[in-house]
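RECORD TYPE: inverse folding
INPUT: structure tokens
STRUCTURE:
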């Protein structure tokens, strides 16, 4: 796999930020590309807090999504396209990537940077309202308070949806120091949620790790945000096993009961063959920590 990160982050020297020191950006000493090959965020527009996201977080995302050759992927909030390019390497020339970005300047940068990958189409559009044919994978790069119906309906059988499910509320003592950064920049804390379509109306679901993300414009609901915050204070979702869309009365199996959806402790009745990676077979309760840093609407690309 050959995806040069420096192609997507503008000319050096670069302004970078490490999750180990969230207080400030600092400058690389020169424009040597080796400086971008560390587990750091790289500022694309420091004034607006727009970053190229943390590689270790994205390595975890790709590991759990288990993207295969020939698959079709929808990447919402692609930024300048670095992680869309990595997804393109995973699907190969027989697969397809649709990369969507709401920010016009970032979308234009992505179109230029992604030119060597003919299997990628870049769209300047609102990821909360974009129409798309059924795909194998949907990735959202910003925090939603709830799963959008279009994201769930757009998954093929065995399809995977991964998005940060985040609240705008402070979680107090339950909040990690890293996720507090997202709140201060207009985002919020929560967790990365992986949803897999097991049957027409059945979805498995599990939280992969805690995470702080900027908000996904158009995928936010104030009441859902408050209810999610209350659920996260009780526990971080390690018991979640499925996402239900059927009508039912809220009971003890409901970790978070929403309008038209429910994160449930019940296991789905059906299961598709999906060859999970090693990390996907680990117990759900082993929830780690990650952070992706923000921008005004869709950030950390």
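DESIGNED SEQUENCE:
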């Amino acid at each position: 796999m050959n995806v040069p990160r420096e192609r997507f982050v503008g000319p050096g020297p670069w302004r970078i930020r490490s999750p180990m020191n969230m207080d400030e950006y600092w400058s690389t000493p020169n424009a040597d590309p080796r400086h971008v090959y560390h587990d750091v965020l790289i500022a694309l527009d420091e004034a607006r807090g727009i970053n190229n996201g943390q590689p270790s977080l994205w390595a975890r995302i790709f590991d759990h999504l288990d993207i295969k050759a020939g698959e079709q992927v929808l990447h919402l909030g692609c930024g300048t396209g670095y992680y869309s390019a990595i997804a393109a390497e995973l699907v190969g020339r027989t697969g397809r990537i649709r990369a969507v970005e709401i920010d016009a300047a970032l979308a234009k940068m992505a179109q230029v940077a992604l030119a060597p990958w003919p299997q990628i189409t870049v769209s300047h559009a609102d990821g909360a309202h974009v129409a798309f044919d059924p795909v194998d994978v949907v990735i959202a790069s910003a925090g939603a308070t709830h799963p959008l119906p279009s994201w769930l309906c757009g998954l093929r059988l065995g399809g995977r949806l991964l998005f940060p499910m985040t609240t705008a509320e402070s979680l107090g003592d339950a909040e990690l120091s890293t996720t507090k950064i997202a709140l201060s920049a207009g985002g919020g804390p929560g967790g990365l949620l992986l949803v897999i379509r097991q049957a027409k109306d059945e979805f498995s679901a599990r939280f992969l790790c805690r995470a702080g993300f900027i908000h996904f414009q158009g995928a936010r609901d104030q009441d859902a945000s408050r209810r999610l915050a209350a659920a996260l204070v009780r526990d971080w979702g390690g018991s979640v096993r499925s996402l239900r869309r059927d009508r039912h009365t809220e009971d003890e199996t409901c970790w978070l009961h929403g309008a038209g959806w429910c994160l449930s402790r019940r296991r789905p009745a059906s299961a598709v063959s999906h060859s999970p990676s090693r990390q996907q077979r680990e117990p759900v309760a082993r929830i780690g920590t990650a952070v992706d840093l923000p921008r005004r609407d869709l950030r950390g690309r």
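NOTES: The mean pLDDT is 85.
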